Every structure is written in C-alpha cells, then in structure tokens.
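input
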Amino acid sequence: MCDRCNRHYRIGSTALLLLAAALGLVTGWLDVPAINGICEVITDIFIRLLKLVSLPIIFFSLIATLSGMSGMGDVKAMGGKVLKFTLLTTFVAAAMALLLYTSFDPAHQGSLAGSYSGQDLEVISYWNYLLSIIPSSFIEPFYNGNVMGALFLALLMSAAILSLGQDHKDSLHKLFDSLFAAVMKMTSFVLKLMPLAVWAFVTLFVRDFQNQDMLQGLAVYLICVLLANVIQAGVILPLFLKSKGIPPVKTLRAMWPALTIAFFSKSSSAALPSAVECAEKRLGVNGKVARFSMPLCISVNMNACAAFILITVLFVSQSNGIQFSTLELLSWVLIASIAAIGNAGVPMGCYMLSSAFLAAMNVDLQLMLLILPFYSFIDMLESAINVWSDSCVTAMVNQELEQAGELASEQTES
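output
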C-alpha cells in the first residue's frame, strides 16, 4: 500500500509541476500587470523560505551523517576502505564535472549570462578568502550566509563528536539527527508551495524572455550534467574496477536489478535491500562486506550528486553575473564532494542542496525553477548511478580484503 501510494504521489506531484509550468507559460505570455505583481510576491516569499532552511540543511545533514559513523579510533579496515573509495570516487566525480563545466561554459552561451542582473562582488585576496572559511563566532556563518564557514563548523563539530565517548557520541548523534529531521520537516512544508512557485517563476521568466539564446545555455547545462553522469558511470567507475582486476560488465549484470529499482524509485535507499542481495548472491561479495559497505555507501557515497551540485551552482551563479576565481572554482570541487557525502535523507537530494547553496549565496533562484521540470529524469539517472558507484566501492573493498586475507581470518574467528 505504501509503495503504491508513494508512486501515485510522485506521479501526481510531477503532473502538478508540469501543469504549473504550462500555466506559467500562458500567464507569462499574456503579461497581465496584476498577475505579474502577484507572481513577484510569491517568488519573494518562496526565496525567503528557502533561505530560511538553506544553511541549516547543509549544516545538520553533514553532522547527522558523519556523527553516525564509527569513532575516529575505532574505524577498522573495512570502514576505512569504504570511506577511502567513497571519498576518492566522489572527488573524481566533482573534478570531472568541473572539467566539463569549464569546457562547455553553459552560463556564457548566447545571451544567458546577461539575462539577469549581475552582482557586484568584493575583490579579496586568496589569503583573505581562505581566512573567511574560519568564522570568528559560531553564528557568523549563518548570519552572513557563509557556506564554507558552515561546512567548516560542521566538519569540526563532527570530528569533535566522533572523538567523544560512546554515550556522548550516541546522544549527540540522536540530537543532530533529530534537528536535521525537524529542518527537513520544515523543508517539506516549503516544498508544498513548489507548484505555486513554479507557476510564478515561469510567468516572470516568460514575461522577461527576450532571446531564445537563453534556452541554448540551459540545453548546454543539461548536456554537461548528463555527460558528467555518463562518464562517471561508464568510464571512471569501470576503470576503478579494472584497476582492482574486477570485470565491470560482470559487476553491472550482477547489480542490474538493484540499479533498475533505484532508477524507477528515484531512491538509493529503496534499492538497498536488493543491492545487498545482488552483491552477496549474484556478485559473490562476502556477506559481511555487503551488509556493512552497501548501507554505509547508500548514506555517504553520492558521486552523481557531487557532479550535479557543482555544475548547477556554478551555472546558476554565473548566469546571474557572479564570477569565480580559479581558487574558488577549485574549492567547489571540495564543497560539492563534502555536500554530497552529507546528502543522505534530503528530499529531492541534489536539487535541494544546490538550491540551499544558492540561497545561502543570495543568488536568484529563477533558473532553478526552470531546471526543475528536467530534474525528474536527472534524479532517476543519478539514483541509479549512485547505487552503481556503491556497488563498485563494495566490490573493490571486498577484493582488497580478500587479497589481504582479512575476510578469511574474520570467518575463522567467527
């Protein structure tokens, strides 16, 4: 009953968003001043609400995820290997996304870059930029919308929690997990306004629409996102497998049922039971490895999300006139990787985190609403690729442990 209800709800939500976008095309074309005024009020309220939950989403999601891991001194060989491959594949995915983005440069296609009012940015030195990452008070990042400062605080807090005793660690993990759940409940209230916001944003977009070159930039952006996902899934991850002597095609065939579930459900978590079963029974992964690695990877290994966050944030920011230095572009590889690792449990995962970053940076979110109709397919693809990455990490961990003889010793001890 629940699965069927959720499926019908997702279909209904998508249909409602498409209907809202279609209505926005009509009302935007009519260009009625009274309707435009209403739309401006709606978009202002929606952006304010997104800003309200933006940094708390980033902060609490990361702490809730990291504080649930094993203690710093208690991470054993298996957990260390899982995290090693998770960090490596996620970082490579973000780096490849940056390479594709700078190559295609979608924000400067046609007249897209000049379609929105630019923002005057303060010119600061690299040293001052690095210093700005470290806030002078705990509330400063949230007051100033300092994304890097919030990430720094989250990582510092997570490291402190992991170094505490088990009782304190469990208590604080439950606290931050509950706070994250509360923020996400607030976010779910905001998301109920999404169809109304889509109608308002599309109406204003069509009203201001002057040049079809704007759509060219959006098309190039979508190509960047799809290429980043395809290259990560079809080239980079198979190369990782081959480097460990694992046949990529055999691994893909073994995990195909789980990938199918992830694709159509748009959820890595929904595919977890099938993924564990496929890894253990079809791929031949040791049961202990499959039951430990897959759940952990489902929570923290989000290759496709890292690529989407990086490309989307840079595209929307630069389309609004914001320019990034080389150091800032490179820093987004790290930011997107960290954000993707802390993405577990976020509704509309990558999309909401990207919106949260942009809202925290005070960037106009009009383009995000135009990306939304395409996100349904992107979300399906990303969910499948995330599970595929989880499968590759699990297979590589199993291979390393087998080669080191650690699995045999564990089985003997048990």
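quick obs: The two ends are 40 Å apart (CA to CA).
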